[in-house]
Amino acid sequence: MYEKKISRAQPGLIVFVLDDSGSMAENLPGTSDPKFKWVERLFGVILKELLARSTELKGDTAQIKPRYFVYIIIYGSYPQVWGTGEMDIQAAVEKYANDGNSLGLGGKLDGTDSATAFQMAYDYLKEAIKAERFCKSFPPMLWHLSDGMSATDATPIADLIKQLATEDGNLLIVNAYIGIQTDLKYKGPEDFPGYVDISDVGADEDNMRLFNMSSEAPACIRKNLIDDGIFPNIREKSHLFFDVRSKDTLKHALQTVGSIGSRADRTAR
């Protein structure tokens, strides 16, 4: 499984669940930027990457042939959908640009109810994978960006999401932890070993919950990360869980998104 390539005929779907609770207005430890700024930064880089993977050159003209669709949920004490719901990558980039290259985050949504946000994602995804557009595609990926703190536990709903599947495999959940408090020792992407065991995460219960909610990286994604020299030492059975030790590591984490698509046949229709 996990063998399909992203194409216009079988596009990829990325669901973003973005934490904009009050704690996201606090600075990321060791930096002068609030955590929501790191979310905005990573989101913008991912959009540009997905747009690049959907752009072809015909002579001197660039043509966008959307191979990715996105669905974006922003949450705090309640969830809300950004944009017009399911959007192709071109529409999402245009809205993001028209909004000043911003999602309008600011740690403004008070408390943190991750369970309700994941429930909204589940309700959308269970219908989306029935559609002709996605039912045979590389499985959708849910990308959760959060500092981990939540008044509710989204684990049971995350487990339901991971049980959903297209013809090519079960849906995947990625957690990008906007923080640095783990027990994993590494200097940067070149020696990042991946989070394999709960002991790598440390004693923080919020972080352990994020780790347990994360899917194990399929062999194809791990191989791509190694072959591309992004995480050359990532271990087998690593979870799709990342912390933010540096700007570079945050940037490299996006490579797991639709990594099959990075090898898509550019002539595929």
Summarize the structure.
With 269 residues, the chain is of the alpha/beta class. The protein has helices at 35-52, 89-98, 114-128, 155-163, 205-213, 219-227, 247-253, and strands spanning 12-19, 55-58, 61-64, 68-75, 79-88, 141-146, 165-166, 169-170, 172-177, 241-243.
Q: Could you describe the 3D structure shown?
A:
- The chain is 29% helix and 20% strand.
- The chain is an alpha/beta fold and 269 residues long.
- Strands 5-4-1-6-9-10 form a 6-stranded mixed sheet, with helices on both faces.
Descriptors:
269 residues; alpha/beta; Rossmann fold; six-stranded mixed β-sheet; two-stranded antiparallel ribbon; 7 helices; 29% helix
| Poorly predicted runs of 5 or more residues | 259-269
Bin the helical content: 25-40%
Major sheet description: 6 strands, mixed
In sequence order, what are the helices and strands, one letter per element?
EHEEEEHHEHEEEHHEH
- Rounded to an integer in angstroms, the radius of gyration calculated over CA atoms is 17 Å
Give me the side-by-side strand order of the main sheet: 5-4-1-6-9-10
The overall strand count is: 10
The appropriate CATH architecture is: 3-Layer(aba) Sandwich
Instruction: Measure the end-to-end span.
Output: 21 Å
CATH class: Alpha Beta
Q: Please report which band the strand proportion falls in: under 5%, 5-15%, 15-25%, 25-35%, 35-45% or over 45%.
A: 15-25%
Helix-and-strand structural type: alpha/beta
